[in-house]
Amino acid sequence: WLERYAARAREHGCSLLSDAQTGFRIDRKRGEAVDNDALEALSNAVREWVAESSKERAMPLSLGIYTEGGIFRRIIPRNSTLPTRKSITFSTSVDNQPNIAFKVFQGEREMAADNKLVGQFDVTAIPPAPRGLPKIEVSFDVDASGTLTVSADPRWMGTKQCKTMSVNAGPPGAEVESILQEAERMRATDGKKRDLVQAKNSAAAFCHQVERQLSELKGKATAAGVGELEGMVKDLRALLASDAADAREIDGKRKALEEASWKVSQ
Fold this sequence. Notes:
It comes from Alexandrium catenella. The protein is of the alpha+beta class. It has helices at about 1-10, 35-55, 175-185, 185-215, 225-240, 245-265, and strands at about 15-20, 25-30, 55-60, 65, 70-75, 80, 85-90, 100-105, 115-125, 135-140, 145-150, 160-165.
């Protein structure tokens, strides 16, 4: 841009010079004829370019990752000023999990698959440990040009791991507006999907917790109490595997299991 404007300035007997206040200015060359109309148009174009380039840029769409069950977890929300950085601590979901795959999406829908896949970042070489024990800080950096760098803190793996991807960081246009309209139109449907997945995730995690608790309770709690919990866990897992389950039913059975678990452990 600058070289183009400088060349146009020279064509009209002017020079494009740096200026402490505006950044750039047009200067007439002594002894040369100047086309005043062209000079004014060129000066206006330079001022517009300077004003546009100095504007703060913002993310036109949210940036996030695929989480358990397919939910889209927003990391960098829409309209975040660029450049920006966000760090989140993640952990493993199963015992001795060696890797964590981060699928990065951009969009405004509640389920990741309904948004645009930007890329994938794999955290590897995680030392064996019980689920939930490794605490891995992952940072998401987006610069003003739209380059995303995802990096993992090296404390658990020994070496820093990172990957760069390109994301949409330009001004909102017709495509972005269409995406926003679609997200608004599907808001209610997407919300129900998200609520069901969250209910299933919460119930599955609590079933796992009770199963570990049962191994510790045997010999300490009554056989009837242990048997009741085992039956309730089995029923809840069967419900989770059913396509007919809804979020309210799952939450109800989970809460009943929580109450029974608390009573047996007393």
